[in-house]
Amino acid sequence: MDLIPAMQRAGQCLLNWADPQSEALSAGGYEVAHNIGRWFDAVLRLEHTIGFTIPPEHEAKMLRLLQLLTDNPDRMLINRPDLPWMAAFNNVINPHNLRETMLVHHALVRYRNREPDAGRTFCESLNRCFTDAGHFDATQLGAAGSVPFTQDPSHTEPEHPPHNWFDATATTGRALEAVIDFHQATDDPLALHLAQRLAQHHLEHSTNEDGSVRSEIIHPENVGHNHSYHGTLRGLLRFGLLTGQQSYIDTVAATYRVGLPQSVITESGWTPHDLGVTRFPNDDGDPVGETASVGDNAQLALWLARDAGQTHLLDNVERIVRSRILPAQVTEDHLRDNPDVKFGPAHLGGWGAHLPAHAAMGFALDVVAALAH
Predict the structure, then answer these.
(1) Which of 5, 217, 232, 257 is 20 to 30 A from 223 (CA-CA)?
(2) What is the C-alpha separation between 190 and 120, in angstroms, rounded?
(3) What residues does 70 pair with on adjacent strands?
(4) What are the backbone dihedrals phi and psi of residue 361, each rounded to the nearest 5 degrees, phi first?
């Protein structure tokens, strides 16, 4: 199975949305501060792995934008309400972008030999904001007060959570993997210390040792996010593999075997965007599906097979790639056969949310980058 053509298409799609003739970047499904971190992570990985060509003018444009969005004391990706073209976007401090901030700092160190100072500054801020109880205290950010804090219920924490439990997979949990990446690229001891703090909290609060999905995560009142939940599992597995702590590996393996098939992903690879509350229903009122979590699931299976001796899971990887990921990519055939779909050449190679039939696809720039990752 040759995946390079699909990856080339994904890379070209990412370039399409970074038009060097414009200083703006379309949100393409989500906010700019989120997408730019994903963009750098994906295209630089593609360059490193398959020799994908990034035109200098595209990279230069994105570096200028990156400088604007990280021009704050924390070097965190934050939208800029003072930029006229960004005025219509959601210009807030958004802890959902902790992962994306760490992804871009890691990518520039590893693939562009940048100095790690900006990434270390961000690690210091995240370590300061992450309390011993596992809360993200945004008042400890250097940028606190300069931009409002998000009110998105999936990215905030209740002031008095019931039973002292709250879902932080969409904020600090999903950031763990990127913190580990940064540590491995820099050997930074603070990043390892931060990764340990994040991992300890999320092993206890975001998983069950027997592999079942925590009932709170899929509770009808929880505003959960499948891609972030999968991302938290990815980080926990990576931490276990990095440190040799078998409890992390065993818990993620059990969750992959028991909890995910029961609650989070079907055998064919269909995954809902939402866990708990259905925030984004399809036309039938059911949760809309999306492909980022599908890629996460295949990645978990690959790591468990390659690095944890569970080689039987390679069958899962191939089944998911063949039955869900590749058919869900927007191709020229898709555009030709579905002229009523509001896609154009800029969407070629993309992925996003999807409805029951692959012909009814959505598109989101961050999902394209997540699959390329």
Answers:
(1) 257
(2) 8
(3) none
(4) -95, 160
Q: What is the enclosing helix (H) or strand (E) of 275?
A: strand 274-276
Tell me what the pLDDT averaged over the chain comes to: 92
DSSP state of 225: E
* Region label for 364, one of left (φ > 0), alpha (ψ between -120 and 50) or beta (otherwise): beta
CA distance 126 to 121: 9
The dihedral through the CA atoms of 280, 283, 285, 291 has a sign that is negative
Q: Where are the domains of the chain?
A: 1-147
The per-residue pLDDT for range 138-176, each reduced to its tens digit, is 999 999 988 899 988 888 887 777 778 899 999 999 999
| 283, two tokens | 């036309």
H helices present in the chain, as ranges: 4-16, 32-50, 56-69, 98-112, 117-129, 174-186, 189-205, 226-243, 246-254, 260-263, 292-307, 314-320, 332-337, 365-372
- Phi/psi for 264 (5° steps) reads -125, -30
Q: What is the pTM of this model?
A: 0.95
Tens of pLDDT, residue by residue over 311-359, are: 999 999 999 999 999 988 988 888 888 777 777 778 889 887 766 655 4
Burial 106-132 (b: 16+ CB within 10 A, else e): bbbbbbeeeebebbbbbbebbbebbee
- What pLDDT is recorded for position 359? 46
Backbone angles phi, psi at 276, to 5 degrees: 85, -115
Token pair belonging to 202? 């999320």
Residues 94, 8: Cα–Cα separation, whole Å: 31
- Hey, what are 111's tokens? 């693939």
